[in-house]
Structures are given as C-alpha cells and as structure tokens.
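Table S2 (continued). Query chain:
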Amino acid sequence: MSTIAAPSIRITSAQVSVRNGGVAATAARMHNEDAVFTGPLPDIVAYLQNETELTRSTIVRILKDSGRLKEFFVNPQRYMDQVAAILKSELHRLLIDGKGANDRRQEHEGLPRAANP
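Corresponding output:
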C-alpha cells in the first residue's frame, strides 16, 4: 500500500480578459495547502466489515499488525478505501487459489479437505 498523504488543496486565481478574439486568462496567484482532518473519525472497523464481510476481531488484528494505523489519522477515507481494496484483493486471491478458511482450518485440525468438483 502506498503511503497515505494529507489531501492538498490548490487555490488558483486568474485575471480574465474578454476581447474580440476570445477569452484569455493569466494566472495571478497560486497557493497550495495541506488539508487537516479535524472532524469526528469514521468507524473504520464497521466500514471494513461492510466492505469485506470479515469479523470485527479479524479486522482489528489486521489493522494492529499492519503497523500503519497512524496513516488513518492523516486521511481517513483514503486509508479505509485502500485497506478495503487490499483486503478484497487478498480474499479474492484466497478463493482463486482454493485455499479458503475452511480448508486451512481443516488442515490445521487434521480433517480431510472437501473434494473439488
């Protein structure tokens, strides 16, 4: 996952002149500013649970073990979207590989795997 950066706002003001030949604009001033999130934080666990159908405890463990939870406070929505995309991708990969959670649990418990049709 790429590093989450704070959203940046670019403010541009321009001088517009209307002439017979058309409209011309010249930049008068440009200003960039990083936005700082100050509102209440969204419920990341509920969001990821709705997106992935994983249990709350699994999501909490993944977030804690990632070591990147501090990036959530920089840009909460982007962080949640990227984590959801990664989790969905990994879940899809697990399904494609045929190594679902039940297969791993059965192997761990010494139970035979179900035959693939």
